[in-house]
Amino acid sequence: MIRKEFNAIVIGGGPAGLAAALSLRNNGIDNILLTEREDALGGILLQCIHNGFGLHRFKEELTGPEYAERYIDLVNETNISTMVNTCAVDIIDNGDSKTVILMSEKEGLVQAEAKVVILAMGCRERNRGNIAIPGSRPAGVMTAGLAQKLVNRFGYMPGREIVVLGSGDIGLIMARRMTWEGARVKAVVELQSYPGGLNRNIVQCLNDFNIPLYLSHTVTNIKGNSRITEVDIAPIDEYREPLKKEQFTLKCDSLLLSVGLIPENELSLKIGVELDKVTSGPLVDDNLMTNIPGVFACGNVLHVHDLVDYVSEESEICGKAASKYIMNLLEKAEEIPVKPGNLVRYVLPSKAETGKENLISLRSMAPAENVTLYVKSGDEILYKKKHRKVFPSEMQRIPLKKLPENCSQLDVYFE
Amino acid sequence: MKKNLICISCPLGCSLDVIYEPNKIISVDGATCKRGKAYAEKEIFNPERVVTSTVKIKGASIDLLPVKTDTTVGKCLMKKVMEEVFRIEVKAPVKVGEVICKNIAGTGANLVATRSLEAN
Ligand SMILES: Cc1cc2nc3c(=O)[nH]c(=O)nc-3n(C[C@H](O)[C@H](O)[C@H](O)COP(=O)(O)OP(=O)(O)OC[C@H]3O[C@@H](n4cnc5c(N)ncnc54)[C@H](O)[C@@H]3O)c2cc1C
Ligand code: SF4
User: Fold this and answer.
1) Between chains, do A52 and B10 touch, taking CB under 8 Å as contact?
2) Sheet holding A217-223, edge to edge
3) Inter-residue contact A301 to A117 (CB < 8 Å)
4) DSSP 8-state assignment for residue A236
5) pLDDT at residue number A330
6) DSSP 8-state symbol, B115
7) For helices A15-26 and A308-326, what crossing angle results, to 10°?
8) Are B57 and B92 in contact (CB under 8 A)?
9) Which fold has domain A127-259?
10) Residue pLDDT, tens place only, A55-74
11) Whose CA is nearest to atom 2 of ligand 2?
12) How many whole angstroms separate alpha carbon B37 and alpha carbon B33?
């Protein structure tokens, strides 16, 4: 096995890995490895050919591949080593250093050592197994992201008459894409009483094409022998039981599932990284360091982001903290817990440092109107912002000023 | 007249309350930035969208090149643009931003590449 040594290894070449590697470099670190299992850097952005990326970062509206290329160009201008077609298969903690086992198409098995490992593996889609729909097991049932890859990267249309289950952004984007490609999208079916994806995607992907969105509905049966031919759809009651009397049937040759994303953490578990039950991503401190010193995480592997701009920003913070760790400059101030309260599904990080500025991300539990978001330490209000509307699909970001030394806990909640 | 719109100019998706007359916007409430008002004006009188798609490419490591229109085109012209997109085939190498088709379907917008692909 080939052996290599680095100061830092970044696993995953999507926007998170790209920005983390660049940030390490810009903060004075040399000898960095960025590894990606696909044949090109860019991550999920390469198949997101629609626009809507980069408005915060670059002040212009870019498509996914354009956004990725800007970062890839910046990485290529540095001496960061990149390996594509190279999958990280294991990580081992040796205390002061970590070993990453890589399987590379070109170099075979590689044993790479580094002081720091940054996890940037992104997320994967929930599939039929995760949501259990009754019925037969015909061809034509696939995740929306797989359909996106087939259409946008390989030019292959998965079907002509489509039903989408779940109103996540990928499903919405694919409803439009398949319509443009000449398919008929008959319905988007959503279990919740509100859409899972961004409002802008409801407007420009469904409303623009008069595609019906059935909220509080679900697919109750999948029919077909070798290929899917029909689905049964029914509204649900308050206990999420389908109302069989109002059930209807739609003919289709494909069912696309857009029922959520899960951070991809098999690798993180191998080295003993502790995961958060709500986000399914690693538990991290305000330096985005996991419970294992020297192992950091950023991007969708940490928690699912809807805005790539925030992924880049978070990953820069991560890279900067990791560079300090490498130089033994990562000072630990007093850490205090950050607790999610009313209407808050999760907060990240789960710990903040006193005497420092902190950036907190959160999502709401359900849609709400005319609410105020508070961050309090005891009775002291540290942050307060009115929101006309909040949606679980929109991540909120709170930049906190330097925390007073006497804080003992932060409470984050809506009222 | 009154209308509630969702600004699609960025993923924040502000909810806009628009009051307007047949040829003039009176007020726009709810926008976080000034693009919201411009969007409302367009959306009420002449809705436009950017079209993103792929065209066939020969001689690159992959068979599809992602493309977009470099400005928005009238919503009713999207279909005509797509019909033209289906017919286009290009040869590698291509640089991001390169014009693939000038004034596509007579919309005034150019179709441009959104990824660089080298010849192999
Ligand atoms: C369909 C869709 C539409 C979106 N639309 C928008 C939008 O309009 N606007 C916007 O701002 N954001 C959008 N986003 C969000 C944004 O694209 C993501 O949040 C962002 O790409 C996440 O970046 P990442 O680097 O964490 O993950 P990814 O982009 O998924 O990158 C992770 C990379 O890690 C690699 N990897 C995984 N495991 C290993 C391993 N073991 N070894 C080596 N490599 C590995 C993967 O191959 C992948 O390339 C969208 C996302 C999706 C999925
Ligand atoms: S008004 Fe501004 S911030 Fe709000 S959605 Fe439109 S562009 Fe985004």
Assistant:
1) yes
2) A217-223, A230-235, A248-251
3) no
4) B
5) 87
6) S
7) 40
8) yes
9) FAD/NAD(P)-binding domain (3.50.50)
10) 888 888 899 999 999 999 99
11) B33
12) 8
Q: What is the pLDDT of residues A275-292, one digit of tens each?
A: 999 999 999 999 999 999
Taking residues A10-35, what's their average pLDDT? 98
Count of all residues that appear for chain B in the document: 120
ipTM score of complex = 0.88
Looking at chain A, how many residues does it have? 415
Q: Domain residue spans in chain A?
A: 1-125+260-332, 127-259, 333-415
Contact B77, B89 (CB under 8 A): no
How far is A11 from A385, CA to CA, in rounded Å? Answer: 36
How many degrees, rounded to 5, is the angle at CA A310 between CA A308 and CA A311? 60
For B29, name the nearest residue in chain A, comparing CA atoms only.
A388
CB-ligand 2 contact for B13 (6 Å cutoff): yes
User: Which H/E stretch holds residue A151?
Assistant: helix A144-154
Q: Are B51 and B69 in contact (CB under 8 A)?
A: yes
In whole angstroms, what is the distance from residue A67 CA to residue A70 CA? 5
Is the CATH number of domain A1-125+260-332 3.50.50.60?
A: yes
Q: Are A143 and A227 in contact (CB under 8 A)?
A: no
* A284 and A297 Cβ atoms separated by less than 8 Å: yes
Indicate if ligand 1 lies below 6 Å from the C-beta of A44: yes
Ligand of minimum distance to the alpha carbon of A65: 1
Tell me the β-bridge partners of A181: none
The residue nearest atom 1 of ligand 2, judged by CA position, is B36
Closest residue of chain B to A177, computed from CA coordinates: B53
> Where residue A130 falls among pLDDT bands split at 50, 70, 90?
low
Q: How confident is the model at residue A129 (pLDDT cuts 50, 70, 90)?
A: low
In this complex, is the C-beta atom of A307 within 8 Å of any C-beta atom belonging to chain B?
yes
Res A126: pLDDT: 86
Give pLDDT, residue B8. 86
The kind and range of the H/E element at A381 are strand A380-390
> Is the CB of residue A174 less than 8 Å away from at least one CB of chain B?
no
Whether the domain at A1-125+260-332 and the domain at A127-259 fall into the same CATH topology: yes
**What residue type is A287 in one-letter code?**
N
Residues of chain A with C-beta less than 8 angstroms from the C-beta of B8: 200, 203-204
- Tell me what pLDDT residue B22 has: 87
What is the residue type of A28?
A: G
pTM of the model: 0.92
Q: Helix A15-26 vs helix A64-76: angle between axes, to the nearest 10 degrees?
A: 30
Determine the residue of chain A that is closest to B81 in CA distance.
A180
